[in-house]
Amino acid sequence: MTISNRSAEPDASVLFVCLGNICRSPTAEGVFRAAAVKGGIGSLVLADSAGIGDWHVGLPPDKRTIQAARRRGYDLTAIRGRRVQVADFSRFGWIIAMDESNLRALTEMKPPDFGGHLGLLLEFAPEAGLREVPDPYFGGAEGFDRVIDLVEQGTAGLLARMRVTLAGR
Ligand code: 4NP
Question: In whole angstroms, what is the distance from residue 61 CA to residue 162 CA?
Answer without folding.
Answer: 26
